[in-house]
Amino acid sequence: MQSRFSDTSPNDTRNTQDSDPSLAGLSGPDAQSGLARSGDVSLDLVAQAERVAEQLSRLRGMIGRVIFGQEAVIEQALTTFLAGGHALLIGVPGLAKTRLVETLCTAAGLDGRRIQCTPDLMPADILGSEVLDEDDAGRRHFRFIPGPVFCQLLMADEINRASPRTQSALLQAMQERTISVAGQTRPLPHPFHVLATQNPIEQEGTYPLPEAQLDRFLMQIDVDYPDSQSERSMLIATTGTQEDPVRPVMDAEALLTAQTLVRRTPVGESVVEAILTIVRQGRPETTDLDSVRRFVSWGPGPRAGQALMLACRARALLQGRFAPSVDDIVALASPILKHRMALTFAARADGRTVDDIVDELCQRIE
Predict the structure, then answer these.
(1) Which long-range contacts (C-beta less than 8 Å, at least 24 apart) are formed by 36-44?
(2) pTM of the prediction?
(3) What pLDDT digit, counting tens, does each position of 24-79 carry?
(4) Exposure winner among 5, 25, 241, 281, fewest CB in 10 A?
(5) Residue 35 in 3-state DSSP?
(6) Are 353 and 50 in contact (CB under 8 A)?
(7) What letter would DSSP give residue 106?
């Protein structure tokens, strides 16, 4: 039976050689060890990719039965999951951000928790705390009560309403997958993902996320209004007596397998060069673009390149391709870079946005 996987996207003819894992010019652990050139290993990777792609197709279909008109948002959220990262969903109220996270958690078979961020939320409310217990013999000891962060998918609703002290409690959890309470480090479950939501129009009583925490999010996913036909379908489907139930079509073990497969996927040298180009050209210190020097105060760091390297593999797998192409970098540049760049006052005065700068960077690699 012929594999449904292709090495490149149907409309991408620029990277055929670099996207073929059997050819030279590969990057990644398998390529560095020479395993990617072995026919047996390549066939094994393709077989695993076939199984994962089938699971992802079912997962995507299940989410699409409940979330209408947000195909790009669903793809970016699933790409974040496959890459093992966290996502920040930004959109006005009523665009199904919370419902998307809940549906994704159920369909993926993950253990999920939700926290509603408020100014009086304390770090212990998220991480957990120690309480003094007394046993039957009268001996006293401290017992740790885990907080909601001990889950596989944590939803932080309206994260910018939490105080900076509470926001910082998530830093170690998001990056290290551990927390420290009472001098003891405790590991979090695997997989562990944070999907946070944020309202861009209401700023009173909020605390903007610091750059250090924004950088921990693999993607900033902007949730826009659905199109007319999707909104019509949503009105009919959600105002009746019954709604389509969401059933698990994956589990945590399957997601971990898919994440491992993403890291084993080979990457062509042209894709690696495209990532380096777009990241380094976005920094005022290393760019030769006049617009970046004038309008960008600081650009993306190395973590942005790492995010692009993983996310482009994840997107390719999600779309049924064995290896990523430059088209994946262009598609993911905005959600991965926009929260890792800051504009100067001159840019704001001139009406320039981060998306304008990212579009200019993408033109360098297209």
Answers:
(1) 36/266
(2) 0.85
(3) 344 444 444 333 333 444 777 788 888 898 999 999 999 998 999 899 999 999 99
(4) 241
(5) helix
(6) no
(7) H
